[in-house]
Specification:
The chain is mostly helical. Helices cover 76% and strands 0% of the residues. Helix 1 (3-39) runs antiparallel to helix 2.
């Protein structure tokens, strides 16, 4: 294979690595900023409180607001977003990392009469690959627990068993307990979704850093 072919593969690998990392980062972070917040919006027109009443707060914090969306649909929307992301971004991040690893191999074979520069390029591309793959490690270590709890709620509400009881089979007390439990679980789901969105932003930073390092290596 001629040198021109190797050069062409190098350019393709640089494009795949840098653009893939940047694209994955943008997509991941966009989910947190533009997809999750609308799911957590409170009712648009909450009932007004009488003037003589006051809202109870704890430690001067704002009262907790639950999303207007029913919990079952809220969880289904998150599951759709999560599944789409899982089917897309890990593959892009991995492909970008493999492109960077190919560039490490390329510069190990082609010194271009400057061993120091080739060694620097290898280190940069290897760092970019490791940073990219660190997004997956970060997900397993720091986000998996939140995802597992959300999945438990998804399974609980998936068949609608928690949304309503069979007619005539529950007492007023049981209905009240079910309603309180649903409200608490809705608050928990809202908290978990907000946490997942924040953790997801951090996850998106890894491929962004990988793209910056890869671009820096390409400019040497």
């Amino acid at each position: 294979m001629t040198g021109s072919h190797y050069t062409r593969f190098k350019i393709i690998a640089q494009a795949v690595g840098i653009l893939g990392s940047a694209g994955a980062s943008g997509g991941i972070i966009t989910i947190s900023f533009f997809s999750i917040p609308p799911l957590l919006l409170p009712p648009s027109s909450p009932p007004r409180q009488p003037k003589h009443t006051t809202t109870t707060t704890t430690n001067n914090k704002k009262p907790t607001q639950t999303p207007a969306t029913p919990i079952r649909h809220l969880l289904r929307q998150w599951l759709y977003i999560y599944t789409k992301g899982m089917n897309t971004f890990p593959a892009i991040v991995t492909a970008s990392a493999l492109a960077y690893i190919y560039l490490v191999y390329y510069y190990a074979l082609h010194h271009h009469h400057n061993r120091h520069l080739a060694a620097l390029s290898r280190r940069l591309y290897l760092t970019a690959a490791v940073v990219n793959l660190s997004a997956i490690v970060y997900s397993l270590v720091f986000i998996e627990g939140t995802v597992n709890r959300l999945m438990e709620l998804v399974r609980r509400y998936d068949d609608g068993s928690e949304e309503m009881g069979e007619a005539g089979t529950t007492s007023v007390k049981e209905d009240g307990e079910r309603g309180r439990r649903k409200e608490e679980e809705k608050k928990e789901a809202s908290r978990l979704l907000a946490m997942w969105g924040q953790l997801n932003v951090v996850r998106g930073i890894f491929p962004l850093v990988g793209a910056v390092i890869g671009a820096a290596a390409a400019l040497w």
